[in-house]
Here is the input.
Amino acid sequence: MTKPSSTTTLAPAALAPISKLWATVGHVLPWAIAIGFFFVAEGSLSIGTQIMIWILFALSLDLILGYAGIVTLGHAAFFGVGAYAAGLFSIHFSPDPLIGHIFAIVVSGLLGLVTGALILHTTGVTFLMLTLATVSLIFEFGNQTRWLTGGDDGLQGMRVDPIFGMFEFNIFGQTAYVYALVVLFIWFLFSWRLMHSPFGRSLDGIRQNSRRMRAIGTPVWWRLLAIYGISAAMAGSAGALLAHSTRFVGLSSLSLLTSGIVTVMLILGGTRKLYGAFIGAAIYYLVQDSTAKINPHFWEFIVGGMLIITVLFLEGGLMDLGRIGRRLISRFRQRSDLP
Amino acid sequence: MSLGFALTILLDGISYGMVLFIISVGLTITMGLMRLVNLAHGSFAMIGGYIAGYLTQGGTNFYVALLVAAIIPGILGGLAEVTVFRPLYRKAELSQVLLTIGIVFVSTAAVTVIFGAFPYPVVFPEYLTKPVDIGFRTYPAYRLFLIAVGGVVAIVLWYLIENSLYGAKLRAAVDNPRMARAVGMNVNVLFTGTFMVGCALAGLGGAMGAGIMSLEPSYALKYVVLFLVVVIVGGEGSFKGSFVAAMSLGIIDTVGKYFFSQAAPYLLYVAVFILLLWRPQGLMPAKSVA
Here is the structure.
């Protein structure tokens, strides 16, 4: 049912030498902005932290949706479970954030492997429905087990110790910001390496033509299961960041709407580019934040409108604007090179 | 457990299933015919419901309101099919999911801005709100009304699909759209017409079923899972399948609410989960049955 999509160039190796400079700039810029933001925007660091959490979440979705071509609407399950795992761990076992974070990663990763093993042999709409059923089931579980999760009041009463016993989570959110940035950077390096490995290339192949990949001997199901588990663990990590930085976990972190939002972010930024998640999440969050001030429901208009326009006219997401721009520039240059 | 009690639960389940069926039947045909993953179907049901609510609160006759609640979503559906959905048929599933979710967001926001964020009631005629005697006990007239209308819709649709030329074309196009085009059928017109009928039925279902599935801005997103479940469980494009699926889901959900109120929310999803793992193509795939 999926049509073979064209292979997009993977920066930077495949780019022409002229744009090598641009590629370097592209790599440095997001991190420079993130580090600069820490010093400039002292008052609004919590917004920055939120954005990075969503970036990580969208990045995890890019691995399965963008690279492996797994169309899911159930990704919020792993995000929410990671958040609840981190929150419950800090309440019942230990308030140490790093151990709690690892616990959350393991729990959501295992959940990803178990649900993935059950449903990954299906494709298309059936798979989509199974992911919907999964996320709805987990949502209802969170809603019903009030004694454990606090139901729709959310999970309260978390205590979070200072990181390494030194850096306390203060009200200015400096620790939370750096914590989120470091975690995001580690996961980014990991994903970059993974997607440029033979494993990552095989996922690319599976997305384009899974039958042919099977025919040349790729264990398709195992590859998909592996990336599904990894992506789930990563989403859980984003959830843990959310729990630790806000000391609260809301039921909405498990909702279908959350799955929808993260998909919107990724598509808006552009899939299969890793940095697409950065642009998409940041722009989505800022638009939502500023339009919600005008009217609390206005952002839904904007987001819905952006989605419709992106699908109809801008299939590669906002990251494609750069490519379109570069193509225009190079065309302009070629023309000026003429005698 | 007395027989009367069992019958009551059965009637509750059937009336709920009828609403699910009326709303979902359009979706099953569009998904089977156009291979379109349409998450926006709930939006049309919601629009129908709000129109009926607005009109009946203003004192319009209930049946006139129902008619309008079917006609306007039908027209909107036709417009949307020609402008937005048609470019989507050739695109991958992901694009379809995204664009239709976009429509859900926009319609949700529009409804909130126009009608407010609170539940919005449809005013039913007084005789429908009273219980009536059905022999062994009294039973809400509203639920009987749902069963009656649902039954009529099901029979009319069944007759149309099985016996009319339109139905024959529809079945042919679901089975093999390329061949249908090749023998000279205008599949585009068939698509638009069918889409309109589907959206009109969704609007009707949303308006009628407002007593069970209350209207609120989150309606479109909240219930679309249920409608999709009916379609997928029944088998895409399968008319009979979606009827059976809607009835089963209505009854399963009602039984769950009566007997395992704690586990009820899971029951439905667990049932769907197991069923789809057991039969990924649904209960009655269109190509072998309809």
